[in-house]
Amino acid sequence: MEQILTLYHSTESRLTSSIVIDLVKRATGNRSIYGFAEFYEPLRARTGVLSQANALSEAAEAWVDVLEVFTYGTWKDYVGLGYRAPELNEAQITKLRQLTLVSLAGRSARLGFDEIVEATGVEVGQVEGLVVDAVYADLLDARVDTKEQAVVVARAVGRDANKERLAELGRVLGSWEGLAVGLIRETSQRV
């Protein structure tokens, strides 16, 4: 990511549509980058200003939308872009599907093949390969249970969180805090 950020900062004052497209393609296609918020947030702010001044092409804006999907979203979010979505290359498709798998794994320790197929758009026969690739990319620790058609997740890396996800996490932590305080009160009354 450091190389992408360096390129971005060196061109920030003269950001053009072609530079935006090139930087986003480089970031999303890079095999070692899986977190994008530190690039996406300043780029979105800068391109928002350029968009208001009509300085960015529709294609560049579409690639910034794709970067947002890679940062916070899933395969379904990309598909939801519809006709505006630029075509991804095979490395980008694989990465977005892996990130989608990580999002699923962050919500449940046991994932059915059907759930993975629906979320990632892969065929049932490709689920095991997707999981193995994600494990080798160190995105998760999991084992595939082919007999049960499930993936058992031991660990998944965290994804970047947008404002909505942060609010959701705040509610979950607030609920957990209330439960913990209640347990402490109950325990201290018994002692």
Automatic annotation (TrEMBL):
Keywords: Signalosome. This is PCI domain-containing protein. Residues 87-176 form the PCI domain. Belongs to the CSN7/EIF3M family. CSN7 subfamily. Pfam families: PCI. GO terms for cellular component: COP9 signalosome. It comes from the Eukaryota. The keyword Oxidoreductase does not apply.
